Amino acid sequence: MTVRLDVVSIFPDYLAPLDLSLIGTARRKGLIDLQVHDLRDFTHDRHRTVDDTPYGGGAGMVMRPEPWGEALDHVLAQGPADAPPHLIVPGPGGVPFTQAMARDLAQQPWLAFACGRYEGIDERVYDEAREHMPVSVVSLGDYVLNGGEVAVLAMVEAIARLIPGVIGNALSLVEESHEDGLLEYPVYTKPPVWRAREVPEVLLSGHHAAIARWRRDERLRRTAGRRPDMLATLDEQDLDARDRQV
Ligand SMILES: Nc1cc(-c2ccc3ccn(Cc4ccccc4)c3c2)n[nH]1
């Protein structure tokens, strides 16, 4: 199944990195159909204006509703009216983007992303969009960006890599940070000694049960050290069950 992704931005070139690496390959393999739209193509004045001053005053500018309305109409017209895209709008005040959300979105056949800029998009655009498609306002984290493009690059990467066929070795998706509630274990490769630093002996032992146990312990230790909040949500019997597996 080809997943369709539409992105609307005033900086379409910001999304050029999605032509590279795994995502680029997936697009060429036909697993992903990504279309980037320039919001200014949906303006009609000489200066291709996309922003205006905020009602109620205040600093900065607000993105005008008309170009967004026409841009989203154009996106909607690319697919079946009875199966519209899920519109994802990055925003500092959004619902936190998580691996669980990425997994859910990777199952959907058609996603659209609206990249805001300035102080944001006129609220009526969200209200209007909700009459035609599901709309989610999503935050990448508790820090402030200047616009949605960087957030969309991150979300598209997180989602696309979960689409079957995009990542060659499906195993590499298991036991990743956030995939099963623990951070990933430390990894090593040749040489066995580098600047007098040795690789942990167990990893060279070929003793698979001991290696699995070591990796499990490292994940727990690392999670407890860096993300104790994640351990709190990993309930007891789940922890014990995991330990029994090793
Ligand atoms: N996680 C996350 C997302 C964003 C984000 C996303 C889209 C936009 C569009 C304009 N801005 C600038 C802005 C800053 C503060 C208040 C309102 C708007 C954006 C920021 N920041 N941080």
Structural description of this entry:
The chain has two domains: 3-170, SPOUT methyltransferase, trefoil knot domain (Alpha/beta knot); 177-245, Trp Operon Repressor, Chain A. The radius of gyration is 22 Å and the shape is elongated. Helix 2 (65-76) packs parallel to helix 4 (123-130). It is α/β, with parallel strands linked by helices and 246 residues long. The strands form three sheets. The chain has a five-stranded parallel sheet, with helices on both faces. The protein has a two-stranded antiparallel ribbon with strand order 3-4. The relative contact order is 0.13. It has helices at 21-28, 65-76, 99-106, 123-130, 149-160, 208-226, 228-233, 236-245; strands at residues 3-9, 32-38, 51-52, 62-63, 86-96, 110-114, 135-139, 193-194, 197-198. Residues 90-92, 116-117, 119-120, 139-141, 143-148, 151 line the site of 3-[1-(phenylmethyl)indol-6-yl]-1~{H}-pyrazol-5-amine.
Brief synopsis:
The protein has 246 residues and is of the alpha/beta class.
